[in-house]
Structure formats: structure tokens, C-alpha cells
Amino acid sequence: MSELTLTVMRLGFLAVLWLFVIVAVQVIRSDLFGTRVTQRAGRAQPRQAPQQAAQQAPQRDRGRRASRGAPTKLVITEGSLTGTTVSLQGQTITLGRAHDSTIVLDDDYASSRHARIYPDQSGRWIVEDLGSTNGTYLDRTRLTTPQPLAPGTPIRIGKTVIELRK
Amino acid sequence: MSSSTHTSTISSGSLPSRRNTELLMLIFAVAIPIFAYINVGLAKEGTVPAGVFGYAAGLGCLAAVAHLVVRKFAPYADPLMLPLATLLNGMGLVLMWRLDLEPSLGSTKAAPTQLMWSTLGLALFVAVLVFLKDHRVLQRYTYISMMVALVLLIMPIVPGIGHSVYGARIWIQIPGVGTLQPGEFAKIVIAIFFAGYLMVKRDALALASRRFMGLYLPRGRDLGPILVIWAMSLMILVFETDLGTSLLFFGLFVIMLYVATERTSWIVFGLTLAIVGAVVVGSFEPHVHSRVEDWLDPMKTVRETGNADQPAQAMWAFGSGGVLGSGLGQGFSRLIGFAAKSDYIFATIGEELGLAGSMAIILVYGLLVQRGIRTALAARDPFGKLLAVGLAGALGLQVFVVIGGVTGLIPLTGQALPFIAQGGSSVIANWALVAILLRISDTARRPAPAPAPSPDAEMTQVVRTS
């Protein structure tokens, strides 16, 4: 076999091997661009178009970066769900016995939509009682208005105690 | 309640099943080894080899059967895993055949045996996809898997069935069939155990800890299991003198522990324990010690005796390959000697395909691992997530241990390069591993059924709007 043919085959083979790798990477591009962010809400929301979702994603990222050093998760320290954590990513966390709550409380003293925890414009986390029957307690005081929430302060709902952690 | 709409989940859009993409990639993946086969034939004998149609038909048939089974039994599975595995297996067969053409490596032909093992591996792949309808079934067998894994690991030490080859006791002898490496299968089984165990225990491991010097120290009773696994992997190392398997097991446990608990301290712990164990065993156990010596100074025997042994030959193979390689069939990897088809097969790739080809092969492994981790991200159940991470991690670790050993990054260990190196157990076990990953990815990518209407939600709405 002539030297030329072998050289061509040698380089050709490497090219084909790399072509395979590149095509394979093209196939998994859908991991990045074919995803859709759906909103889970109390009520059925119209599904967002992918473009809108793509616009939202960077905004959320920015919000997270701005609040470095801020609490990163919500930890349940007492009650039947002890040990559960919810990572905070700028989303509102709803607590209650309703099935669509972020944290579904299996607690006789909790209302179906009991309380919510959400970030305000400056990135502080606010806890708000949603007109529950038995009340939400921040440390020892019953909530009447939305209150800012400091890391480590226990929120008590029935038998469940929740804290913000860094 | 409009502000509560920020709660979001990320899902893949309306997922097409992507079986046709898989078919195209599969055709590509079969074509590349055939090209390699023709290339070797032209370089070694000057003609297109006579067996090319048989080889093409064989590989094509195997791939077609696998594809049809995936189409039927796992229609939403990942489109890339099967083509990637097929490419690696096909390249392995070509390299076997290419090294069979070297008379100095002995007259036993490895390629036909390897083809038989690949067929068996694909049969197991098909069986897993057909009979394992849901990977969550495996969760029920958490503790049985632990026992099975222990038995598989201990088997090579048991006198009578254990079988020692070149100083490593990792084979068992089955009369009439040949030898088998139970460690390869134990890898999958232990991943099932870790996934089931950590799924239950992860909260205790993650939360119950004290902070000390910036690290979260786990409680003593939670440390128990990791110490047991550590002791177990050291026992393997001492009694079977198999550095690779013990590294694989311990690494797998640390990876899965980290994924389950999100605690960096586990990685620090794991690495410390692994290094301490490896250093202690490496200095006292003679077989492992000689491997470490070879690794620290591969050229020692060349200086002292003038003859190069395997580590030195492997280094020279990589060096003479350069960037673009010598071309398939034109290298001198026969000089490596008896382990050229098994432990040192990557040196042949390095010499004949060069840096460019080795990188492509490593990337193919990387993509396979990436698909596994992507499957873990997409999986909805924690057991599936952990299992997918574990299996992908096992594959990645094994590739690292083998390629790292051959290229001189870490001491060489007796592990087989998945899908490529000679060895039946390895090929069969890895096909089963890919089948389980495909099953998890099928479950993960399958469109979710519409949620059942909840009577509660409607009542709540009435209250809210009033």
C-alpha cells in the first residue's frame, strides 16, 4: 500500500472520529436549549413559551449573585418533616396542608394555606401569615403583619419549626 | 397569590423520543470501526481484509438488535448512550484483531472470543431492558445487593474457586467456562446498595454534623458505614492485591455520599482516608509496592538491565505516537508484551491514533459519563438519581484508573478499560451498566402523566376568591 493512501486514511480516520464526537455534542445541545421552565403555581398558569423562560433565567441568576452571603436554604428542625431542606433560589415558598404548597405540612394545627416566605426587592426574606386559623409564630410572637426573617430565627407552625440557614 | 408563581421546575420541552437520532448515530458508530478495520488490513496486509463483510455484518446485527430492543422497551431513553458504547466496543474488537496479527503476542486469537463476549454482553443488555421495567424495583434489594456484592468480592480469595493471575487474585475459575472477574459485576451491585442506603440515610448524614475548622464533621455513628467500606476496600487491596477495584469502590462511595449529602467535608474525608490507606498498603504489600516503584521510575529496568518492561514500553508508545499517531496497524505496541491487549491497550491507541485519537476516545468516555450524570439530573426519584450518578461515576472512575495508570499519572492497576480492553466480565458488566442507565433515562424522560385533579385545590380556590 502506498504511503500516501495510508497517510490519507490515518488522517481521515482521526477526522471521522472527531466528527463523531462533534455530532454527538450537537445531539446533546437539546439539554441546553430544549428545556422549558414551567411555573408551578397555586392555580393552573398558562405554560410559558421557551423564549420567555430563557429571558427569565439570567434574571434569576443575577438575583442570586447579588445576595451572596444571604441564607441559602430553609431547614425544618422540628415536626414530622424534620430534616427536610428547601434551597432558596429567589422563589416564594408556600407552607400549608394544600398539596401544591412548596412544603406540604402534615400537621393538624396547620391551615391549608398557612404562610409564605418570599424575598422582597432588597433580597431580604419576609414571612407572612396567610390568615391561618392557629397562627404563625416568629420566635415567640404571633405574626400579624409580614415580618423580615433573620437566619436562625425559628418560625413555628403548629408542631413544625422552620429556620433559615446559610 | 400571583407572587407564588415564581416557584418553577425545569423540564425538557415536549420531548421527542429521539430514536431516529439514535439510529443515525448508531450507523455512524458502526461505520467508524469498519473504517478502522479496513485501515488496519490495508496497513498490515496491503489489501482490504477478507473478513470485513463478516465483521461489518456482525457488528451491524448486534447494533440493530440493541436499537430495536431500545425502540420497543425504552422508547424515551437517551439517544447517545447506545451509539457511544457501540463505538467503543467496535473499536475494542478492531484493536483486538489488530493485535492478533502480531505473531510475537502469541498465537491465541483474542478477537473471536471478544466478539463472543460482546454478543453475550448485548444479550444481557437486552435482558435487562426487557425484564427490568422500572429501576425502582432494584431499591427493594438494597441489603441483598450488599450481601451479593460482598460475596462477589470475597469469592476470588476463597481457595478452590479463586484464581490468581500475575499476582492479582481477582478472578474466579468456573469449570468448563473459564475465568470470570466478579469485581466487575460487584461494581454495579454495590452502586445499587449505596443508592438505596444513602437515599434513606442522607438527611442524617447531611444535617447531623458539627462545624469544626470550616468543615462539617459527621457524628460518630454516621461515620460507621464509610469506615466499614473503607476497611472493606483495604481488605480487597491487601488480600487480592487489586489496587484498581479498591480505588473504584471507595471512590464510588465517596462520590455517591457527596451527591447525596452535598457536603464537601465527605470528599476531604474520603480522599484523606484513601491516601492514608494507599500509602500504608503501598509500602508494605510487595505486589502493590512494586507497582508503585514502577510508577515512580518506569525507566529503572532500562537503566539496570537494558531491557524495557511494560511501563517503559507504554511510555515510548505514547511518545512515538505523537500528535497524529502512526496510523492504525503501523505502531509497535507488540513490544509491550503480554498485557498489550488488556491492561495496556490504551498505549496502542496512544501510539496508532496519537494524541488526537486518544483525546477523541477519552471524550467518547466523557460523553458516556456525561449522559449518565444528565440522566441523574433528569430523574425524578432520589434512588434513580443516586443510582445513575453511581453507575456513571463507576464508569468514569474506571476509565480514569486505567488511563491514568497506563499514562503514568497514578500507579498501574489491574482494571480493564471499559468496552475496549480484552476481558469478558468487563464487557458483559459494562453492557448491563449501560442498560440500567438507559432504563433510568427512559423513566426520567418519559412524559409525565397528567396530574390527578385534586378535590382540595378546587375548594381552596372558592375560599380564596370570596
Automatic annotation (TrEMBL), chain A:
Q: SMART domains annotated for this entry?
A: FHA
Region Disordered, as annotated, extends over 41-71
A Pfam family of the record is: FHA
Q: Which PROSITE patterns match?
A: FHA_DOMAIN
Asked if Amino-acid biosynthesis is a keyword of the record, the answer is no
Output the Gene3D superfamilies linked to this UniProt entry: 2.60.200.20
Please verify whether the record's keywords include Phosphoprotein: yes
Domain (FHA) ranges:
93-143
Protein keywords = Phosphoprotein
SUPFAM superfamilies reported in the protein's UniProt record: SMAD/FHA domain
- Coiled-coil annotation reads none
- Output this protein's name: FHA domain-containing protein
Species the sequence originates in = Streptomyces coryli
**UniProt lineage:** Bacteria, Bacillati, Actinomycetota, Actinomycetes, Kitasatosporales
UniProtKB/TrEMBL annotation, chain B:
Tagged with keyword Transmembrane: yes
Q: Domain of life of the organism in this record?
A: Bacteria
Q: Which residues cross the membrane?
A: 21-40, 52-70, 82-99, 114-132, 144-165, 185-200, 221-239, 245-261, 266-284, 344-365, 386-410, 416-438
Quick check: keyword NADP in the entry? no
User: Which keywords label this protein?
Assistant: Cell shape, Membrane, Transmembrane, Transmembrane helix
Q: How does it sit in the membrane?
A: Multi-pass membrane protein
Where in the cell is the protein located? Membrane
Q: What are the start and end residues of every segment in region (Disordered)?
A: 445-466
Q: Which GO terms describe its cellular component?
A: cell division site; plasma membrane
Please name one Pfam family that this protein belongs to. FTSW_RODA_SPOVE
Name any Gene Ontology BP term.
cell division
**What terms describe the molecular function in GO for this protein?**
lipid-linked peptidoglycan transporter activity
InterPro entries documented for this protein:
FtsW/RodA (IPR001182)
Protein name (Swiss-Prot/TrEMBL): FtsW/RodA/SpoVE family cell cycle protein
Native source species: Streptomyces coryli
